[in-house]
Amino acid sequence: MDKKKVLDALNLDLEHEMSAMVRYLHHSFIVTGPTRGPLVSMFRRQAEDSMQHAIKLGEKVCALGGHPSVKIQEIYEPGEQSIEEMLAEDLEMEKKHLNLYEQQLSLVQGSTALKLMLEQILVEETAHVEELEMYLRTDRKTAVKV
Question: Of 87, 142, 120, whose CA–CA distance to 13 is shortest?
Fold first, then answer.
């Protein structure tokens, strides 16, 4: 296992989780309409999940002798957005994060603890993707358009 590559990857993950936390909080502030309450709760829960991932990653960087990044990945802020646009943006970012974690699994071969940590985050990121896909799904008679 190449420790420098692992530390760089974990710091990149940390930066993505920090940006996700900011983006979700921002969406929780600006969402409006009759479905605002449940969406605020969902966005803030996602922000909390991103914060927990960031904490795990930052702690692991320190445990491995590195220094956790304070950067965040650039966040696209288009101004006014519909609920669908916010959810689609979040889904796109979650899929990117999921792919990033998938690719990084090869870097931690030989470290069961690191592999399990990344796999647990992958499970949680997959749940985020699935939840956002369900919010955006409008193919059923029972689906409510937001």
Answer: 120
